[in-house]
Structure formats: C-alpha cells, structure tokens
Specification:
Layout: H1 22-43, H2 49-57, H3 73-90, H4 100-108, H5 124-134, H6 141-150, H7 159-164, H8 169-178, H9 185-195, E1 208-210, H10 217-229, H11 236-243, E2 244-248, H12 251-264, H13 266-272, H14 276-284, E3 287-289, E4 295-296, H15 304-321, E5 355-356, E6 370-373, H16 394-397, H17 407-417, E7 424-431, H18 440-452, E8 455-461, E9 477-484, E10 496-503, H19 510-513, E11 520-521, H20 537-547, E12 557-563, E13 576-580, E14 589-590, H21 597-600, E15 608-613, H22 616-626, H23 629-638, H24 646-650, H25 661-678, E16 682-687, E17 690-695, H26 701-714, H27 720-734, H28 743-746, H29 750-753
Parallel strand pairs: 1-2, 1-6, 2-3, 4-5, 6-7, 8-10
Antiparallel strand pairs: 7-9, 8-9, 10-11, 12-15, 13-14, 13-15, 16-17
C-alpha cells in the first residue's frame, strides 16, 4: 500500500502553492478574457445599450434598496457577451471558433425573438480580434476552478505584480482602496466546512448568505459542499436558486456571480432542457446590488405585503426553472421584466437610511441560517453616513473623529444580526487586528461578539513564511466561526471562545494547514480586551495565571521613550534597555550599540523603545525578562507576531517583588551573562541602504532555560510549562521540520534537544 505522504498531490490552481500565487495563475487566463472584453467594449455603440441591458439582465424582482448601476453599460455589456460565450463553450454547445452571436442565441433560447441582441452591434473586426484572444483559453477543469477570479475585472494588482510590471499599480491601488483580495478556494471551503455541519442543509428553507459575494467564491464553495454530501441525483440548480443568496455593491460582480454559479449548474440545464437565460434569471433573483452596511437585522413581519412578496418570488423562481412565460407586466411579449409595484416590496421600516435585510430578501424574515464572507478591509471614516450606523452597529456607536472604523467590524456584527436567532452558523475571514487592536471600535466589536453569545472558534494565521491569501497578498488573518444552536430566539446563549495559536506554515505544507487546526477552549475570558492566541490546555492555564498577576515590568523603569538606533550608539544614560518595535523569531532587545563610524550614518531610521532604569541591576533584570522565551510567547499570544508595543513591554507580569532575593540576584546575573553572550549572535542586515542590527538569542538556550525557570517559578506555573514554551518557540522558528531548506534553523535548538 502506498503511504499517504507518498501519493502524488492533486494540484489545485485555485489554491496558492509552491512557487505559485493565485493571482499569477489566474492571470495566465484572465488576461485573454480581459483583453477580449476591452476589444468588445471599445467597439460597442452606447446609444440604446442601457435599455438592451435592462431588458436582458434586469432582475425579475427588485427592492427599494437596490443601488443604481455604477459600472459603465458598455463594460457590463462586454462582460456579458464574453460570459455567454464562455458558458456556451463549457456547456459543449460551442467551440472555441464559435461566434458570439451563436453563444447568445443558445443562451436566450426560445426568447430569441423577444430579447434584444447585444452581439449584433459588435463590428466584424472587433469580434474577430476578441475571439482570437479567447481562443487561447482551455475549456478545462482549471478554467472552472479559476472562473470566480478570472471574472474579477480589476486584473492583477499586488505587491509582486507591481514589482514585475509597474503598469499594474493602478489595479493594485484600486484593490487596496476597496479592500479586495482573492479568497483562495481552500480558505472558502474550510470556512464553509465549519459553518454548514451545524445544519442539515437539504431541508427546504435553509438560507445561506454572502453579504459581499463578489463573483461568488463562497457560494461556489457552499454548492460544492452540498453536492458532496447529497444523495445521487442532487440538483445543483435547484439548490443554488433556493438556498444561496449574495449581496454586492457592484452590479458587474453580481452579474458575473450569476454566470459563475450557472457554470456549476450546467448538468441540470442539459438534463432538464432549461433555457440558460431562465436559469440565469432564477439565480439572479437571489443576488442583489446594494450596500450591505445599510441593511439591518430582519424585521419578523407577517404583513400582507411581506407575504405577497415571498409568494411572488417563489412563483417567479418556479416559473423560471420550469422555463415558462412569466410576468404579466412584460414590456416585450413573453419576456418578464422587473416588478416595480411597491406592494410587492417589503416596506423598509428601518431607521433613517437603513433597511431590514428582508426588504431585499423577503424569505429571510427570520434571518439567515448560514453566513460566510471575506469582507472589504477598508476604513469607513470617509463615509458621510457613518454616524447613521451607530444605532445598529456597536463598532460605530463608539465612533470618534480620531477613530478608524474598519468596514470588516460591521460585517462581523452581521454574523448574528443577519442570522436566525438560536439556529445559525457564520464564518468570516478578517484581519488579525480583531484579536488585539485596542482602538475603541475594535474593543466594542469584541464586546458585542461576547454579548451576542454562541460558540466562537477563532483561528489565527501569520503572514510568514507564507500568507493565507498567497505570497502576493501579505496579510495576517483571523477566521472567526460562530455557531448558535441554543434554539432560543429571545435571549442570546452564553458566549464561549476557542482559539488557536498564531499559525505559521510553508507552501509545502499548505495542504495540511486546515486539516491540523485544533481549538483550545478559553473559559471566562474578557473578549473586549483581546482574544488570546493559544494552543492547548497547558498554554491556556499558563496564560490565565499570568493575566491575573498584578505585577508589571513598567514599575521598574524611570522613563520610557522612543529613539533612533543611532542614539543607542551614543547613549549618555548608563542604565538603559532598548527593544526594537518589530520582531519575528525573537524580541530584539539590546543594552547599547557599538558600530563602525561608516555604519553609524546608515543605521536604520526605524525607532526603538528606550527604557531608562535607576540602577544597573534593574536594567539587567528587565533585560533578562524581556529576552525570555516566556515573554516571546506572551507577545505572540497577545499581539500580531510582528509589532512590539511599549504597552506590551510595560505589562509583562513581573517586577522586583516577584522574586526572592536569591532569585533576583540570579536573574540580574543571567541578564549580564546573556548580553555578553549575545555579542556572538549579532546580525547586521542591509535594506534599501540602511543597516539594521539585531541580537538573536536563539543560540543562547542554556541561559534562557535558567531565566524561564525562574520566571515560571515566580508565577507559580507548573514546571512542564518550560518545555511547552521551548516547543512553542521551536515550532514558530522552524515551522516545517521536514523542509531541508529550513534545516539551518534547527541548529539553534541543538542544546535544547540535548
């Protein structure tokens, strides 16, 4: 039998891998699609085009919250033409040489005479040039995997793409401004896999929402999961049209999302002879163009208007999937157009500009059963209507002009605000700052998470050696999963929190990343302060004990300030400890710098913390504590694994009173010995002409063992915590024990092994 590790791995192009980024793989195909769109877009006449788009693509039911179209009609038309061609190609009814008109004829089917044609306006030469671009695509499984990313209109725009091609800077700036990042499919599948098992998804009425769906990555993941777990004969189209819902502010994204879902439902179209246009419209019924932030929790209403709206939408869906003529208000015979009768729309009944989510989707009067999202990572301070959200969102209620209100905080609150009380599951992927940021909007959001109740599972991901979204998008992230199975609709169940350490991995081990996540329960934490990143009961108990200590290192020093590294070379104060404001595998702490005159003027301009002590023994004690593995672990638990704040150093839970006189003298001596030994572990690195100096304590294991032992004794922790913390540091530094390229990192721990 072949061992699992020896089996060849299936390469999934929708997942970052060794030497492969999702954006780069996508761009190999997307550039041809975008070029074809651009060729068609430039060739289309504007006159009358918007009316044609409305007749062809206008949703068959609309609400009072629908946003006006923001994208140019020529761009929408060009993307629609290419999308119809791609669908026909994958559906096997067209070849790569087929004309756009042939694909459109197949898409609209028997409504050809009733619906306007978009392709008839394309000049012959433009159609030829666009087809030449599209003929370079392969209609294969990879195309289907990458389709949600291919149809994202911005194109490549990442740190790496700008380094390779400066012309992509505009796309990068646009994506950064809007907080747009590709969600790799393994991330989406993990989140969906955590949320969906809370329910039997098959029963009628289970509703799944992505409130910022883009081109549909999460909706595809839900459809795939449901298909895997279903019985033979599973109807993908029926499932998608009755269970999957999406919201986005971009009409172009929403229309492409409907096409992406339709690609995954092609077998149903063939087996049931449903006109693709009807199937597309049935999917489009559950996708709306609006601002999710301007929606509020559903109003559980049973008014005649609400009941009528639900019945109307169900009737529309049934008729579309039956390929029947619908809509007596059609402007063109046989073609249903959008309903504009206000009696078919749930009255807003909101506060100010906010509307209940069931004014968009009447079926969701009791809330959604499942919510998954990768919200935009932008700030909202530039919005003139920000304060109008204060009555709905706790994250905004604490808004001050000086505060940065991150958009993703409001999407976290949607995890319970849009959810069915007592019976729901939600998952969002957000920046790591949700765990530790001390800004008032963040603290208010965490407090609201705690008040909302439910079971929270929080997993945390570093950006090095590799990042969750890939090497071109270096972010630190958290995946938050909330389940509420209390069955109570009136009162939230008590909140419980489970977390993971800040995980690191290499591209070689990414396929094991989600399969190896284990959560640690944290009873009784105050989530408003922070959500600690812990692995195992031993760490949880140690953190609880350390957090309860009244002592703090800040009592030792006389002054704390920041300075440039050059000041550490000419320091007139004799009893100082310096700590770099950023770190990775160790906290870079030093007593002073001795550098060659030629280097002084080129030293890094990144400021460092400077702590002034009244005497040398206090400085030596503080230096020993800061350089300990226990402090490094606490920094990981409480921070982001990169920035080192003065607040963290100040609150390290030790001072002179923490130790007996004997242990205090020993720690001071160990501080002296460690600084002496660190001279042999000095690192000088050059970045953009500036020299950074660090002192790596990883090779000073015997001294750090003694320091840790004294700190653990003072905190009255079990002695096995020392071994736990040693193992933690090794896992953080080495990351992948079997990767020969990281073998040199293991040499720092030989003494520990001995």
């Amino acid at each position: 039998m072949v061992e699992a590790l020896d089996r060849p791995k299936i390469v999934r192009l929708s997942v970052p891998g060794p030497g492969r980024t999702l954006s780069a793989i996508t761009e190999e195909r997307a550039r041809h699609v975008r070029r074809a769109v651009q060729i068609i877009e430039r060739s289309l006449p504007v006159r009358g085009l918007n009316e044609k788009l409305d007749s062809l693509l206008l949703p068959r039911w609309s609400s009072a919250c629908t946003l006006t179209n923001s994208e140019p009609c020529r761009s929408r038309a060009a993307w629609t033409i290419v999308n119809m061609w791609l669908l026909a190609l994958r559906g096997g009814v067209a070849s790569s040489s087929s004309q756009f008109a042939d694909a459109e004829d197949w898409f609209v089917g028997r409504f050809r005479k009733s619906l306007p044609s978009l392709t008839s306006a394309i000049p012959t030469n433009a159609a030829r040039d666009a087809l030449l671009e599209l003929q370079q695509l392969d209609s294969d499984a990879a195309l289907l995997q990458l389709l949600p990313y291919i149809l994202e209109p911005h194109g490549p725009g990442s740190r790496l793409s700008v380094m390779r091609d400066p012309s992509t800077r505009f796309a990068r700036d646009t994506k950064k401004q809007n907080g747009v990042f590709y969600t790799p499919m393994d991330v989406a599948e993990y989140m969906v896999g955590r949320a969906l098992p809370a329910f039997k998804i098959a029963p009628k009425g289970t509703l799944c929402l992505d409130p910022c769906c883009g081109t549909g990555v999460f909706l595809v993941a839900i459809l795939g999961r449901a298909s895997q777990e279903a019985n033979p004969g599973f109807d993908r189209l029926d499932f998608a049209t009755r269970h999957l819902y999406g919201i986005d502010a971009s009409i172009l994204a929403i229309e492409s999302c409907a096409f992406v879902l339709l690609h995954h439902c092609l077998p149903t179209l063939t087996s049931q002879a449903i006109t693709p246009w009807c199937a597309w419209q049935a999917l489009r019924l559950n996708l709306t163009v609006t601002d999710s932030l301007k929606l509020q929790r559903p109003t559980q209403t049973s008014s005649p208007a609400a009941r009528k709206a639900t019945v109307t939408r169900n009737d529309l869906r049934t008729r579309l999937l039956s390929d029947l003529r619908i809509g007596k208000r059609s402007r063109v015979d046989g073609v249903p157009t959008a309903f504009t009768d206000d009696s078919l729309v749930v009255p807003p009944a909101g506060k100010g500009d906010l509307h209940p989510v069931n004014s968009v989707f009447p079926e969701a009067a009791s809330g959604f059963d499942v919510l998954v999202a990768n919200p935009p990572y932008t700030t909202l301070n530039s919005r003139s209507d920000l304060e109008s959200f204060a009555g709905e969102y706790a994250s905004v209620a604490a808004f001050r002009t000086s505060s940065n209100v991150s958009a993703y905080l409001l999407f976290i609150e949607m995890m319970w605000r849009f959810a069915r009380p007592g019976r729901s599951a939600s998952a969002v992927v957000v920046p790591l700052s949700i765990a530790f940021h001390q800004g008032q909007p963040f603290r208010s959001c965490r407090a609201a998470m705690q008040s909302a109740g439910g079971r929270w599972q929080c997993s945390f991901f570093d950006r090095e050696p590799h990042a969750l979204f890939g090497e071109d998008v270096k972010t630190r992230n958290a995946i938050l999963v909330r389940t509420d199975s209390s069955g109570r609709q009136d009162v939230a169940s008590a909140a419980s929190f489970e977390t993971t350490p800040l995980r690191r991995w290499t591209s070689r081990t990414r396929d094991q990343l989600f399969a190896t996540i284990a959560y640690t329960a944290l009873p009784g934490i105050d989530a408003s302060l922070n959500i600690p990143k812990l692995g195992g009961l031993s760490q949880a108990n140690a953190y609880a004990a350390l957090s309860s200590r009244a002592a703090c290192l800040g009592e030792l020093w006389e002054e704390a300030a920041s300075c440039l590294p050059v000041e550490a070379c000419h320091n007139s104060r004799p009893h100082c400890v310096f700590v770099a404001t950023t770190a990775y595998n160790f906290l870079n702490s030093f007593r002073g710098l001795s550098v060659r005159p030629a280097i002084v003027r080129n030293l890094s301009q990144n400021r460092v913390h400077r702590f002034n002590f009244g005497d040398e023994s206090d400085a030596e004690l503080a230096f020993a504590i800061i350089c300990s593995r226990l402090s490094f672990w606490l920094w990981h638990v409480q921070g982001d694994g990169f920035h080192v704040g003065r607040r963290f150093i100040e609150r390290l839970p030790f001072n002179k009173r923490s130790f007996s006189a004997t242990d205090l003298r020993a720690l001071c001596q160990l501080g002296r010995d460690l600084w002496r030994e660190l001279q042999d572990h000095r690192i000088e690195s050059l970045n953009k002409g500036r020299v950074t100096i660090a002192f790596r304590p990883l090779g000073c294991e015997s001294i750090r063992n003694e320091i840790d032992a004294l700190l653990i004794k003072a905190a009255e922790l079990p002695t096995d915590v020392s071994r736990e913390i040693q193992g933690f540091v090794r896992s953080v530094v080495v990351v992948d024990e079997d990767d020969q390229r990281r073998g040199h990192l293991k040499t720092y721990f030989h003494r520990m092994d001995e």
